[in-house]
Design brief:
single chain, 10 strands, alpha/beta
Length: 216
């Protein structure tokens, strides 16, 4: 089973005391699980192409499905996308941090497995204080598909993760139960008008109201 680190969700800054082995593991191509806005996510360094490819093996995930990343600050967008459309700015102002994943035009130099050949990269600034603090302390974004095998129930706690993929990952950051609920909404802002790829925690009506325009 994976190594487990206990972190108090009320004090995310305590991550700093345990970040060294996590950072080392990710730098070596390792993988971790951690709580997000909804479920526990599976994290690797998205800049490491080999580590990104391992996600498909760990999750038994079909090839060709893109992988989203989490950032801790909008300034990081420039490292992953070639353009931030005006409507994307409006969406971020309204819903970030929160469970809205935006699809941006991807830079050519990022691992192709992240985009699944679409030329688009999914990015979210999470509301989870633990997830944001983790990304901040690591100094780089993290991937965040659910930390379970594909086609199984999404993991709500560290025990769920261990039962599903614990033998295949290195660390679990145990910050208690994740909130659950609907997954993040995925909005494609590379087209105009934007298109909802997956409706989840943020509704179409709320997005249209925030953007001031109908979606496709």
């Amino acid at each position: 089973m994976a190594n487990r680190l206990q972190v108090d969700p009320q004090f995310p800054q305590t991550l700093q005391a345990v970040i060294t082995p996590i950072k080392r593991s990710l730098a070596e191509g390792g993988s971790i699980a951690f709580p997000t806005d909804t479920f526990y996510g599976l994290g690797v360094d998205p800049g490491n192409a080999d580590a990104v490819e391992k996600i498909f093996t760990i999750k038994e995930r079909p090839a060709g499905k893109p992988i989203l990343i989490l950032i801790d600050d909008r300034e990081r967008l420039k490292d992953w996308t070639v353009e931030v459309p005006e409507l994307a700015e409006k969406a971020m102002d309204a819903f970030w941090p929160g469970p809205l994943t935006l699809l941006f035009p991807a830079r050519d130099d990022i691992p192709k497995a992240l985009t699944a050949g679409t030329g688009k990269i999914g990015i979210r600034l999470p509301d989870s204080a633990i997830a944001r603090q983790l990304v901040h302390d690591l100094g780089h974004p993290l991937t965040a598909p659910s930390a379970n095998k594909s086609e199984t129930d999404n993991p709500l706690n560290a025990d769920d993760v261990n039962q599903s993929i614990g033998s295949a990952i290195d660390w679990i950051i145990d910050a208690g139960p994740a909130p659950g609920g609907a997954p993040s909404t995925v909005l494609d802002v590379t087209v105009s008008p934007p298109v909802i790829v997956r409706e989840g925690a943020v509704s179409r009506a709320d997005i249209e109201a925030a953007l001031g325009t109908p979606l496709a």
